[in-house]
């Protein structure tokens, strides 16, 4: 007796294995050599590359929900989710429709990636991370446990964000119509680093190779190659020469 529900129009590549009680929707395409855990739901139209691992209880291609008074969620239909090759997606992850993951991305257990988000190749999305809608995450990025990336944010390549970092996009905190003119997430430029439990306010840009110290409250843009610390954060000193991204010898 079959324990999974797989649409007749779904296509599974050679050697792909599904656990028990999976639901795979219409026109889903899953590449070769994939391992799908138990109780996984893959919604209509989702595209998944070769050699992808998806662990138990994960949902891929979930449609967005819109509250009656939501300021940032659209009613427009979004394209199907797309997962690149050789990705690892942990248990009880939710990846929304309209999300695109590159190749060799790791998404750890209990994370959520919303619609209209792109995540570049080789990026790590840690346990319990939330990436809200309309975000761009670059290549070789590390978002550590319980990071919150607010909507309308841009994170460039080789960025490191330590555990429990919080970002925001609304200086009006949900009050007055003026807020609708000024929604803006954060921008972290190439090689920027943000220390544990730091908070970055709306519209702030973290400069290239800038380092935000642990616990800092960032209220102003940070200069390239500088360490900022404190509440509010202020320039402390230069990032040491041997810590600069271009000194690491990485080929990409």
UniProtKB/TrEMBL annotation:
Alphabetic keyword roster: Acyltransferase, Repeat, Transferase
UniProt xrefs under Pfam families: Hexapep, Hexapep_2
SUPFAM superfamilies found in the cross-reference section: Trimeric LpxA-like enzymes (SSF51161)
GO molecular function, one term: acyltransferase activity
Organism name: candidate division GN15 bacterium
Gene3D superfamilies: Hexapeptide repeat proteins
Domain of life: Bacteria
Protein's name according to its UniProt entry: UDP-3-O-(3-hydroxymyristoyl)glucosamine N-acyltransferase
């Amino acid at each position: 007796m079959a324990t999974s529900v797989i649409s007749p129009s779904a296509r599974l590549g050679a050697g792909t294995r599904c656990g028990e009680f999976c639901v795979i929707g219409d026109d889903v395409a899953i590449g070769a050599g994939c391992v799908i855990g138990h109780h996984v739901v893959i919604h209509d139209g989702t595209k998944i590359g070769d050699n992808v691992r998806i662990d138990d209880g994960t949902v891929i291609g979930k449609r967005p929900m819109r509250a009656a008074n939501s300021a940032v969620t659209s009613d427009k239909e979004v394209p199907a989710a797309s997962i690149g090759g050789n990705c690892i997606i942990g248990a009880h992850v939710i990846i929304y429709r309209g999300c695109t993951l590159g190749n060799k991305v790791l998404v750890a257990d209990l994370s959520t990636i919303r619609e209209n988000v792109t995540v570049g190749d080789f990026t790590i999305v840690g346990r319990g991370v939330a990436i809200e809608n309309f975000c761009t995450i670059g290549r070789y990025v590390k978002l550590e446990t319980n990071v919150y990336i607010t909507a309308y944010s841009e994170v460039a390549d080789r960025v490191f964000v330590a555990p429990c970092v919080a970002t925001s996009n609304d200086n009006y905190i949900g009050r007055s119509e003026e807020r609708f003119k000024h929604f803006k997430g954060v921008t972290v430029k190439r090689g920027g680093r943000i220390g544990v439990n730091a908070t970055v306010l709306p519209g702030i840009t973290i400069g290239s190779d800038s380092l935000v110290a642990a616990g800092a409250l960032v209220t102003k843009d940070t200069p390239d190659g500088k360490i900022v610390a404190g509440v509010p954060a202020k320039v402390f000193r230069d990032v040491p020469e041997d810590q600069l991204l271009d000194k690491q010898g990485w080929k990409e």
